[in-house]
Amino acid sequence: MSRKIVIEPLTRVEGHGKVTIHLDDQGEVVQSRLHIVEFRGFERFVQGRPYWEAPVLVQRLCGICPVSHHLAAAKAMDVIVGAGTGDGLTPTAEKMRRLMHYGQIFQSHSLHFFHLASPDLLFGYDSPPETRNVIGVIMANRELATQAVLMRKYGQEIIAATAGKKIHGTGAVPGGINKNLSIAERDVLLKGPHPMNADAMVRYAQGALDFFKDYYSKHKEFIDNFSRFPSNHLSLVRPDGALDFYDGVLRAVDADGRKILHDVECQDYLAHIREEVRSWTYMKFPYLRHLGPEKGWYRVGPLARLNTADFVPSPLAQEEFEAFRKVTGGRPNDMCMHTHWARLIETLHAAEMIRDLLRDADLQGSDLVVRGKREAEGVGIIEAPRGTLFHHYRVSPDDQIVMANLIVSTTNNNEPMNRAVNNVARALMTKAKEITEGMMNAVEVAIRAYDPCLSCATHAYGSMALAVSLCDASGNVIAQRTR
Amino acid sequence: MPKIVAFTIDGKKCQAAAGTLLVAAAVENGVYIPTLCNYPGIPPKGACRICTVRINGRLATACTTRVLPDMEVLAITPELEEFRASVVEILFAEGNHLCPSCEKSGSCELQALGYRYRMRAPRFPYAFPKRGVEAWHPKILKDHNRCILCKRCIRGIQNAQGKSLFAFGKRGDRLVINIDPETSRDASDDLVRLAVEMCPVGAILRKGQGFDVPIGRRKFDRMQIGSDISPQGGS
Ligand code: SF4
Ligand code: FES
Known about the structure:
The structure holds 2 protein chains of 2 kinds.
Chain A lengths: L2 E6 L8 E7 L5 E8 L5 H4 L8 H5 L7 H15 L10 H33 L10 H7 L1 H22 L8 E2 L2 E2 L5 H9 L6 H21 L1 H6 L6 E6 L11 E5 L5 E6 L4 H4 E4 L8 E4 L3 H5 L1 E2 L2 H7 L6 H13 L10 H21 L18 E8 L2 E9 L5 E7 L1 H4 L1 H16 L7 H12 L5 H4 L9 E6 L4 E6 L1
Chain B lengths: L3 E6 L2 E6 L4 H7 L23 E4 L2 E4 L10 E3 L3 H17 L14 H8 L16 E2 L5 E4 L8 H5 L9 E4 L6 E4 L9 H10 L5 E3 L29
Parallel strand pairs in B: 1-5
Antiparallel strand pairs in B: 1-2, 3-4, 3-5, 6-7, 7-10, 8-9
Iron/sulfur cluster (SF4) binds next to α4 of chain B.
């Protein structure tokens, strides 16, 4: 009798997802799927709203990385109000937005690494769930845990100073920003009492990298091979090839590092990217149009960004980037768990950029908004912590939004996450009679490397409990396990 | 010289020129009586009832009543405050007030009163009415979802010929306030700005201009509504 194994809801993933693993009569894994169970329909309910409301409205998609949605929508609206596609803003506006975004990357990456991923690294994914959580991290490594809390807090303070508040602020407006950074605000962030200042945050980010590299040296086999598979990689890069989270052109490389998307303009994304709908899930599957859904799917996020970028434009992170690249001899890195490494390099880069920006007098400028010829359509693309985020709007002559298309990072990673689950299932669950805690968790670790914000991809949120059901071929539950 | 009359609010001895409207007289004497449809300088309407007080034992709206000698006014009593809290809650339940994405958030008088009355879980069922956005005007956007029908705009926003820019449409519980295509044709930017300012909620918006006041500098970011008149509200 064939069986279906259901793991739901995933713990320590923002939002609600479930995994089903289908076994055949011989106990072989025939198929596994990551299901996204809910749908909130932001694209539908922004319709009819005035365009300038979008950056504030759509950020409610997510409580973890609202800044990304806020900025992606604002960038699309820059195009609508004729302020151009990135270079058109005043220096103060662009730098304030960048500061906000680096603050966001910094806090989100810190949160992910320490709160969501480090429990697995510190304790192993087959250790008991009672200790394999953030409380366990605090007990085992007080200093690390304290730094994590402070890094997240610092990132949040940056957001508050630029967007007005820590979550769901209003800073970016079509064509610019609604405030600059006062000297007082700057000084608090630049040279606040230890450790709440830019220098300390750079050191903390370096410390986190050291922690990871130390772990890596001791667990090379696991970090290199767990859920590893080749893929294409996509992200924004600065036109000169530098890593850039805020703006740039779209680039994709294949598993051998060949460019398969040649630095195309964001406004033209539809000519290059398509989304496939599959009957069993609400979440779509994006792919590169010219390669088709089979060959054109790609990864986004920290690993993809470090695979597409030629260099990192800040000295300390560049050094780390070189070491990271050396591991694969310059070829794209397809080792799933190296995403954590990449994420920490980006965390360091964000810290360096924050420090540089805080010293930039443009942040105290008073020229905040530009306007030009009104356009009917705009695309805003940004590198959110979890990967490339697309916002696309059409606006009527009466200023109402008539069409919105959002492709969020987690949707971009839909295919790779499904493949990751499949790999783990095949490796661990073939011929399995029982589903151990360790097996269930291995599936989750594979997904968690992508840091999926399921609440955002599916526009849903769920409880943190874990329930496992065993179903036979006709869907009857034959066994259940919850924790 | 107008005659000065003496009266009391919640026992506090007050004075004002005879004929002054009670809400204004209260302000002169450092007493805040919550208002919503009222707007200084335009004719009172008595539409929202939130300023209801007891005058010599009887209920009356303070925005439409003029002070008389020896009036005894009760303004901030548990009974009246509870009544005001329900007015605010009913207004929230009756429209579609989605503060998180509203650009008036932080400067909205209805929201500020919601905070003042510590509105939490809803006591009244939400109506979720189907209402639209009126977006045809080149400078003004009217969001019917948020309109509380206070009619400030009808009373206060007139063109050079003295004609109101806004007009009633439909009747009864489907009453809406529309932009009048005739009278609003040549609306100046200043007049539009005044209309936005005068609307207590986010129902009148200036096109293309949202969210330009940063959080922290909005009207009620640093002070509770009415606390500029009297710190605890009332006297
Ligand atoms: S539009 Fe504003 S001012 Fe006019 S009636 Fe509605 S809430 Fe009152
Ligand atoms: S303020 Fe007096 S009735 Fe509205």
